[in-house]
Amino acid sequence: SAVDDVAHTATSAVDDVAQTATSAVDDVAQTTGSTLDGVTRTVGSTLDDTTDTVGSTLDDTTDTVGSTLDDVTQTVGSTLDDVTQTVGSTLDDVTSTA
Q1: Is the entire prediction scored with pTM above 0.85?
Q2: Beta strand extents in the chain (DSSP E only)
Q3: Which has the closest alpha carbon to 96: 8, 1, 5, 18?
Q4: What is the pLDDT of residues 81-93, one digit of tens each?
Q5: Is residue 34 within 8 Å of residue 41, measured between CB atoms?
Q6: Dihedral Cα 43, 44, 49, 55, nearest 10 deg
């Protein structure tokens, strides 16, 4: 598996709470047909947990323009961040090591 917060299945990429076999990343509940969705899925967005900003790829709470994945605070140049992103890490939920 790539990154796991609570439970990870062999076919999933990233999981925060519960991963379904057909979803790539799921925070709370996966909606059929969506790629990543935690609470509210905005049509046309790829990843959305709470609010998706138009044009953003991944957004959980606040997406900084140009960031790829952001849950709480996105550090410029980081790829995935949930709480604190360590520079050079790829996936991070709480604390990432390089």
Answers
A1: no
A2: 3-4, 14-15, 25-26, 36-37, 47-48, 58-59
A3: 5
A4: 444 444 444 444 4
A5: yes
A6: -130
